[in-house]
Predict the 3D structure of the following.
Amino acid sequence: MQRSNIARIRTWFVLSRPPFHTVGILPFVLGTILAYKINSVFSLEIFLLGVSGVILIMLSTYHSGEYFDYQGDVISSRLHENKFAGGTRILPNGKISPLVPFRTSIITLILAGIIGIILQFVLKTGHYTLLLGCLGAFSGFFYSTKPIRLVQRGVGEIFIGFCYGWLPVASAYYIQTSAIHPVIHWMAIPIGITIFNVILLNEFPDYEADKATGKKNLLYRLGKKSGNFIYITFSLLASVAVIASPFWGIPFKIVYFYLPVLIISLYIVVMMLHGKYEDKKISEKLCGLNIAVNLGTSLVYILAYI
């Protein structure tokens, strides 16, 4: 019985992808730190509720994705073992019913909405609190969910860049201060671009599965060569944006903090130039390093202000 409970916990842990929540939590923490450093404002209660809402929206996003990407994930599980692509493989392996993550995606979405109502109407965090939350919830839930299914319309990656770039930083700052500082717009560029690149690169291992299921995401529409060009271009643009940050009033020490991230980013670019995305083992490593670039980009902004 105890082993059965442990197995269930492990299944839910894998299905919910806690490590991938960091890509949304770090930008939210950044926005909160900015509110404190720029406006000397910080409410622990608001922060905890806000970050809980972000986590619930990400849970809804990941769980709905597992349900609606089921057919593609079955094919992907036969083609590769890349832990960063093809879903969690919980459903293809028959560990739980496909309906379970669909139901939990709706429940977590409702809970996130309740938190948004409390923040706006009880804690008086600002008139746009629910609007900001709905932008993230709608884009996340309908990224994979039919009939809208943003990922299949060739714009899903752009929405993800917005929802994991500008939105969490701006939302965290807003619910603390009821305003949005202009510097946030600049920070959102490299953070948004790098998470866009995370999604784009993760689509390379799933390319054949996506073609087989008609999942017309951005890479499907562009092809690997054009997708590779966009990845490299955006990666270089993100690096330039971070290095140019001091011109926007961000502490100059961010340049020193960014050097390790820059090295990793340039390494991935070189590998992509040599077409290493076709090598399954190397591709998995590149996907992992790519996430590190995104997290590192958010982290260097945090360190610059701490």
Observations:
- The chain has a mean pLDDT of 91.
- DSSP finds 14 helices and no strands in the chain.
- Residues 26-305 form one domain.
- The first helix runs from residue 2 to 16.
